[in-house]
Please model this.
Amino acid sequence: MGYKTKNGLFALIFTISGFSCVFIAFVTPYWLENDGQHENPKFQRLGLWEVCLNDFDDVRHWYDTKFNGCMWIFEEEYYIIHDILLPGFFVATQFFFTLTFTILLLGMLMVALFMCCSRDHDRFVLLLLMIGSTHVTAAISGTIAVVTFGARGDGRDWMPNWEHNNMSWSYAFAVFGVMFLYAAGVLFLVEARRFKRRKDNEMATQAAYHMEQQHQRT
Model:
């Protein structure tokens, strides 16, 4: 099996860790959270797809609607405050992290092949290169997402009581997930290079052997 090398085993461990962290960050609503020190915070917490508000209203519009509780961020009821909930940087964060998760799903399918594929298979090196490239691509997309959100998420120009809003554990999982994906991608690429070199050496040895046999026959 492909993972029965020390390097391959570590690559697999980092892949599983990265996928777990990315998945948790993708589905949990704790990217940004109020620290609980404000007496009556209008904002409570937010993830990529869910936001929790408390008597939240938009003073820039002429209506008395107040929003309470946790809802899907694209809920129809929220359309009147979409310009607040979905600024450009947050939409970019959603897009790039969703891209990360989608690419990673494809990568996990290839990892499943890696786990059961023989190292002597003709396309084993190609599989390693594809897995490594997929992981690195997912990590780059994830980096764009976490850097974008990290730069603007707790800014004073977005959610109310900004001084009490902090990056929370879902965001931390996203950051660690991206780091694990970089490590896994590099290890898979290193593994591909190692196996390619071994395969080239074996082919060169076989070619030299055949040439020697032909020379002895002549």
Observations:
- The radius of gyration is 25 Å.
- The domain at 6-212 is CATH 1.20.140.150 (Butyryl-CoA Dehydrogenase, subunit A; domain 3).
- The chain has one domain: 6-212.
